[in-house]
Amino acid sequence: MFIKSACLGTKLQHTVEYLGCNCLKGYHFAAMASILTALICASEKSANIARACKREEALFQLLIEEKKGPDKNKKFVQDFKTLADVIIQEVIKNDIAEKFPELAPHIAGEESNKFENGLGETITVKVCKTEQGTAELLSKVLEGNLKAAGLLAKCIHEDVHIDGPDLQKLTIDIPIDTLGIWVDPIDSTNQYIKGQLEEKFKDGIHPYGLKSAAVLIGVFDRNSGQPIMGVINIPFNEIDLNLRWQGKYYWGISYKDINIHSISKQIPARKEISVVMSSSEKESIKKALAPLCDERMYYACGAGYKGLCTILGLVDAYVFTEDTTFKWDTCAPHAILKSMGGGIVNLTKALIELNSGGPSSFPELLYKKPDEGAKETEKWANTGGLVAYRSRQHLETIINALSLTVDT
After folding, report:
1. How far apart are CA 331 and CA 149, in angstroms?
2. Burial status of residue 159 (CB atoms within 10 A of its CB: 0-12, 13-18, 19 or more)
3. What is the spatial distance between Cα 344 and Cα 329, in angstroms, rounded to a whole number?
4. Cα 247 to the chain's mean position, in Å?
5. Mean pLDDT of residues grouped by 10 in the chain (408 residues)?
């Protein structure tokens, strides 16, 4: 675990016991370690569900439902919702709310928990109190397939424990009343459904396939809107000797003067700037960045995965000019990048700031308010595009290059 904090290493004064809660001056406090542990456990259970669904082909075929009407993302001709998506979102909400009931009204995500089965019945998917109850509910979605429903229910009610970082060292308390959570149960759902494992990739960056699927859980301050904690879980990180998928998770915290993250690998400085984008990015943007990047311009799927590529230092920045990423796509990677000294800015606002001759304080994305005037399905979009970055210097170089484009 990499730690960057002036506070850690000294004994902090606390009014709340580790893993405990208490009331103080009108606020309800919780140990930050307990919250992060809950997020990681929820992400691990989610990854288990995602893998279970992929293992059983008959089950997987039952899980796919095409999104239609207002739920459809305008970026894709076909935008799919899987039952795995819905289950994972509800599992995350349920498991976190069980430990922190105060957070229950403030956990939101991408998916509706309404699912339509082949009989035209609309089922509200949720986690029941017992494994049997959950299995019976899911069997209605799966048109009476008790075996498949039982498999999913078992994963949902499984206890998950982590043997990761020594979180007990994280003796920091936070007012839980001010927190909000954004969840993307399976980012890059289309790649998850296709299930491809591409063999050709460059410099560690996978342009498509299962490795771009990610579980994203981001925590933000409901007062300021700033991201403060994030977990990214890659369910299909590598295949073990038994040809079974193994996952990996990453986390970061940026709260006041505390900046801690799990990224231990240090990336050496490079002369050229490297950028990851969507393959559908505008040609004017590619042309503007080409002189900076030379051959270090990459393409990949999934906003969460491209954010992770930036976090891991595989690239210096992730550039996206469309309005089709949402708060649930960026909150988790934003928090981790922030803990490393980076962040995610609103591209359009940064260009306006630069061209107006104002101070170079490019506006970071915030997570507490919807986009006023946007359609219901797009109100939580990151309107104006974004640049995720590790280095402030690289960010300024990229913004300067993009300011010369006509069509941004």
Report:
1. 32
2. exposed
3. 12
4. 15
5. 34 29 58 91 95 77 61 46 85 96 94 79 92 94 85 92 66 89 93 75 88 96 97 93 88 92 76 90 93 91 96 96 95 97 95 75 92 79 95 93 72
Strand partners, 227: 220
Verify whether residue 329 is a known catalytic residue.
yes
Catalytic residue among 85, 95, 173, 316: 85
Let me know if 186 is a catalytic residue.
Answer: yes
Exactly one of 189, 310, 324, 330 is catalytic; name it: 189
Q: Which residue has the tokens 């008959």?
A: 58
> In sequence order, what are the residues at sequence separation of 6 or more whose Cβ sits closer than 8 angstroms to the Cβ of residue 188?
212, 213, 214, 301, 302, 303, 304, 305
Cβ neighbors of 182 (< 8 A, separation 6 or more) are 108, 109, 216, 217, 218, 220, 327, 328, 331, 332, 367
Q: How far is CA 189 from CA 2, 128, 144, 329, in A?
A: 31, 25, 25, 12
Contact 85, 189 (CB under 8 A): yes
Candidate list 111, 329, 353, 364, residue with the active-site label: 329
Cα–Cα distance measured from residue 229 to residue 210, given in angstroms and rounded to the nearest whole number: 25
- Phi then psi for residue 376, to 5 deg, are -55, -45
Active-site residue (options: 44, 90, 95, 110): 110
- In the chain the first and final C-alpha atoms are separated, in Å, by 39
Alpha-carbon gap, residue 112 to 406, rounded angstroms: 38
User: CB within 8 A of 358, min separation 6: which ones?
Assistant: none
Q: Is 184 a catalytic residue?
A: yes
Catalytic pick among 187, 221, 323, 353: 187
Which listed residue (156, 176, 181, 186) is catalytic?
Answer: 186
Active site residue 85: yes
Q: Which of 44, 111, 184, 323 is catalytic?
A: 184
Largest CA distance in the chain: 64
